[in-house]
């Protein structure tokens, strides 16, 4: 299959070629033709399969003709987080460079002045997080009646973050004869309901079973206790040929503490979580992308969908509470056909959470054997021992080891035990956590006054 067979314009094909893509991904090959035919569409494909270009490319051609009008964006893309919104904006810039399209980005944590000015003048594409959009709508700064194309991206994530009521609200303000596209990695019942209500006769495309993990990712679970997690992590970072890694934690405080601890042990670690303002998050991400640090400790909300190339490892320092998050987290590695490794730390209190993950992905994750001696040697930091243990580690990871052998304890660190909690099914996630996720995604306007990064600026795409 070739991009040229999909019905895209010549200008667009040139931009795609310049971006270095030679072949459409399966979701792109299947989604682009119907979208160009102005059909509604539901696109289900796991993280990292190229869903963004499957709507951005046809949208550029659809929007190439037509007039901008003041206050009335011609199309709207909803994203759950600021980072994802910024990434979609980058995609528009990259592929739209041969077109005269204007875009605005409405996200929390970035001053709205320029964006509102752009909206007042008229934009072809508005990329927004739901909260920020509703905010502006209620203040009468925007009209949605001219918006004939809507994309609801990362719908399952929107659901996790409690955005569905906002999305319903937004949908009801758009013209009914619009074209609507919904993209998601999974299709839980509330998303099905949303699409039944707001899409009309959609084309349904599913390229892999929902929540099936990428086959290029070698997955392991590692039996740990809360107090040994850091030590086990350092051991694996040293012995598993890690070139770059994202380490996911369930809580923001864990992200901060762990990043600090890793730095204290001489690792090049950065951190990204929802308490950081937008410039700080982007700066930290840049440090990681540029290789300044090779380990990024992250919370789900801050890291979901981030497009970082060539991550060799994903560590789930905590088993995620939501099984969907597991798929998203490990999807940060093994991208674009490369292979990757994912380790999930499972403490006794995570039994139910890991069970839910295995039910969702439909496969038992093999247990990684942490050999006692290896851990001991790694701790003593003998370079020779480390080399030897790396070999053993590579060796053992090919077989499935049913029995867990624990790493000896190290008492001087991590004395504070993670608070004990029962493993919970997603529905029972504590209210406080859920609120936190939401506030991570849409922090109150923090009145940031710093320079606006280039790609966040409203720009003529030409
Ligand atoms: P998703 O939204 O499905 O999680 P993205 O749209 O973020 O995935 O794309 C994942 C990665 O794949 C990005 O790095 C993107 O640049 C890359 N990509 C997308 N389409 C192609 C393609 N046709 N060929 C090669 N790489 C691609
Ligand atoms: Mg995406």
Automatic annotation (TrEMBL):
Query: Where is the Helicase ATP-binding domain positioned along the sequence?
Result: 32-205
Cite the DEAD-box RNA helicase Q domain residue spans from the record. 1-29
- Composition bias of kind Basic and acidic residues appears in 379-432
Q: Which GO terms describe its molecular function?
A: ATP binding; hydrolase activity; nucleic acid binding; RNA helicase activity
Q: What reaction(s) does this enzyme catalyze?
A: ATP + H2O = ADP + phosphate + H(+)
Residues annotated as region Disordered?
A: 371-462
Q: Which UniProt keywords are listed?
A: ATP-binding, Cytoplasm, Helicase, Hydrolase, Nucleotide-binding
Q: Name any GO cellular component annotation.
A: cytosol
Tell me a GO biological process for this protein.
response to temperature stimulus
Taxonomically, which superkingdom?
Answer: Bacteria
Intervals of motif Q motif? 1-29
Supply the EC number(s): 3.6.4.13
Which major enzyme category is it?
hydrolase
The family database entries (CDD domains) matched by this protein are listed as: DEADc (cd00268), SF2_C_DEAD (cd18787)
Sequence ranges assigned to domain Helicase C-terminal in this UniProt record? 231-376
Report the sequence similarity comment from the record: Belongs to the DEAD box helicase family.
Q: What is this protein called?
A: DEAD-box ATP-dependent RNA helicase RhpA
